[in-house]
Amino acid sequence: MKNILLFAFMGLIILAGCSGSKPEKTIANLKAGIKGETTASAKYAAFAQKARGEGKDTIAKLFDAASKAESIHANNHRKVLEGLGEKMLDFKPEFEVKTTAENLAAAIEGEGYEVATMYPQFLADAKAEKVEKAERSFNWAFDTEKKHHEFYVKALDALKTNTVNTLPFVYAVCPVCGNTYDNAKVDEKCAFCQTGKDKFIII
Ligand SMILES: [Fe+2]
Ligand SMILES: [Fe+2]
Description:
Layout: H1 2-19, H2 24-53, H3 57-83, H4 100-128, H5 132-160, E1 171-173, E2 180-182, E3 201-202
Bound molecules: fe (ii) ion (2 copies).
């Protein structure tokens, strides 16, 4: 009898330990990531429309491609969050649309923050809390944002030197991880997640 009580007591302690071990930082980071990626997706879609209105079709295409990629990142983060038994509350994306030159500068700043600060911190937290699926989702976004940053810097340079017509006009986006390619330079398989190029979304 004494042993049974002891086992029951130990069982209760183990259960209490498990329920108190939620990866709190990663859950908060996933929510911030969903908000950031969803806002970026809506913002870039609006920037694309603005660029098209200004007759800058190559830059519009870049914003369209990045918008698609960010929505894939948001979905990936959301799936991980829901897998942890958590839900994202509704929110309204907030952003400003200015001239295309200013929009590109804002995009460079946003991607720069994600690459230099946000995702490195999210990745460190996910690693420490051992949430592998979050680590994978953050890594896919982190690696994609580095490419977006580079594309935007080139686009702003082209705008300043009146050479926007030399920028790529077709992009390919991996539907699994959001990796974004200048369509003339796609890999046979996505360099981040190995999805075949036949599955890529052509923008
Ligand atoms: Fe991005
Ligand atoms: Fe991919």
